[in-house]
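Journal club prep, notes for RB
We'll compare a predicted complex against what the paper describes. Inputs for the zinc ion case:
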Amino acid sequence: MSQHRFAEVVLPMPLDQPFTYAVPEGLRERIAVGMRAVVPFGNRVDTGYVVGLLEEAEREKLKAIVELPDAGPVFTSEMLELCKWLSQYYCCSWGEALDCAIPAGIQIRSRKRYSLIEEAMQPGKLSERQRKVLAELKLRGPLTEMQLAKVAGPTGLGSTLQSLVTRGVLDAEVVTESPTVNAQTETWFRLLPEAIPDGETLASMQRRAPKQAAVYLDMLHGEPERASIDLCEKHDANTTILRGLEQKGLVERFQRDVYRAPQMHFEPANIRKHSLNRDQLDAYAAIVAALEAARAQTFLLRGITGSGKTEVYLQVIERALALGRSAIVLVPEISLTPQTVARFVGRFKTQIAVLHSGLGAGERYDEWRRAQQGDVRIVVGARSAIFAPLSNLGVIVVDEEHDTSYKQSEVPRYHARDVAIMRANLSKAVCVLGSATPSVESYHNSESGKSTRIELRSRATNASLPEVLVVDMRNETREAGGDVTISRVLETAVNERVAEGEQVLLLLNRRGYSPYVLCPQCGWLATCPDCQVSMTYHSHGGYLNCHYCNARRSVPQVCDECHFNPLLYLGTGTQKVEELLERTFQGARIARMDADTTARKGGHARILRRLASGEVDILIGTQMIAKGHDYPGVTLVGVINADTGLAHPDFRAAENTFQLLTQVAGRAGRGDLPGRVIVQSFRPNHYAIRAAASHDYPAFYSQEIAQRESSAYPPFRRMGILMIECEDPLEAEKAMARLSRMVREQIEGLGFRGMETLGPSPATLRRLRKKYRWNLAVLSKSAKRINTLTRTVRQLFEAEYPGGKVQLKVDLDPYGIF
Ligand code: ADP
Ligand code: ZN
Ligand code: ZN
């Protein structure tokens, strides 16, 4: 008999230590490590995870676990360990890491709910915000803080509400919310073979209860396990009849899971299996050797677009399945890579679950359960699919491993590629990172021997790599005597391709019509009231839009400051180019693909379908058009402005530009016709642009790695960012000064020589969503030291600044620091 009288439970909150709870007698038989547990915490209940069981506790009087909502563990010991590592590496709590590894919406949680006290006295003087809260409660009845935050804003709302409670205006009660998502089950019956009655009993049953007998005989001679609903329908029976059979001990009732069907269907495509070419065979053999030996090994599969990487993944996974193992395939974003997903579905049919953003919470949970119960052996999905609950994992594929969407921007701020490598390690699985343009970090690892590099050197079909022409826009503008959006070479080329009935992709990484609205008299610039950025003019619908916080305002007719008109519209976005294209290429069918035209569900698919069926001649779009599509009709790719990304104040600016240009160039000439790429640039000699033009990854890498080494940036040192956010500019600055003192003291105190700080400095976006922001970067060769430092400093800081008015955010291995 197990005597697990106490359990250690971690909660999804930024609290590092597990809490010990008593296990009530009735749950002792059932409790196991890896289970969810509903526990009291403060005056609420929350759902945590059992990470340990104890026979003795230091204190005897402990709160008890309320409930174990599942039949068994939701985490294997391997997943518990993975999430523990994740929490340590990315500086969050174990509970937060576990919480992000299971589907949302299934947790039992309680919240405070506020209601108006009917007989309350006149509340006296109220602030604007307090009035808003009271009006909302009067209108809608009792609400939680989260619901109220939608009308009254989240920051400091807790104390506003508390003060209303103290004044006797509001009542607060704790309510337990049931999960918004539940498993769905159906009632089934199964025959009990040990209880089959003799002929005489059957005959008497046929006389006395003919319907019962009919159902029973049907199960005896047909399928022995049947859904209650099917039996009732077939025999025009009701549940009483089935219950009768159950009472006689002839059948037994059980619950069977039903899965909601995923909504988005992937037409199985390109099912034909190719026999591998020389390079592919070498890659396959190396990966499969590790797989068969159950050796955790990371491979970097570098191959230009169309070199047959996907075919290698497919065949490696086939081998893994034959060995009884399972597979995870990560793709950057499913709506942008439907063709890749369709090939996996086509090859593996029902053995696959697809996790994508188009799924509702219930469907997502069901796909997750299909994996957990072993009904599928392969999971394909974006970032969070790395936590898919598959057992006996053999392969993890990270396709387009350089893609920045693998980094999560909220807590826990993990990078799915790095989690993949760690998970493969723990599972003795192989991890295959694939890309035409590997991240500098991954390529560096393959140089230093941390991973094994395999290369596919040519396109798998006969298609050749497109020829790339770089147009020097300095000459163009000089000769035209003003702004040029489309150079003469590009214009001629587009005309030629369209006349031949071929298709053109044009890349401009900026949506909207024009990014600046400016007063020519006083220099006023339309900026977001909450962020320190200019608002972009959108011509469809006619409004200004902040691309960081999505705030909108109507188009100003006159200057906000000096009332001058007309205002100037400067700069070029996709809408403006679309308009220009319509004028320049009359008769051509033009479509636009950016966040605005794809906002509705299925928006991407609609545009890509039109492109595939030849209804579009020219597609203008943001970097969305650069991802994994394969459209044989596209023979020309134009890049309107290759330099925008280079201007970002980010040490990865060159890398991101090189990757984007190479990816978009790879869209040209994937069919029988040769492709051509025209890149417009004001910096045609920049190494990122030159290397992309000559399809020369090694040339790019050698320049880039030299730069990183001389400035000691990643991958030579690990970087962590400590960010302060506060609505008050002075407080933000003061808190940052205090924080950087703490950091320096700790570096000294801990004896971390060689650890360096950069900053503090105001963030590039000095103000975002009403908050002023400061950054401090820490750099060290040791990730462990950065973790120790940030953890210690965070504890000290939060002790000094409780209440959340000043917020400290920590980001390890940051991407896109604004
Ligand atoms: P990648 O993933 O590197 O972009 P794919 O695996 O999609 O490359 O292959 C590009 C095209 O070549 C696809 O249409 C695929 O069906 C085809 N292909 C892949 N491998 C072979 C092969 N060994 N022989 C012939 N065609 C192949
Ligand atoms: Zn003005
Ligand atoms: Zn904004």
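Talking point for the session: The mean pLDDT is 89.
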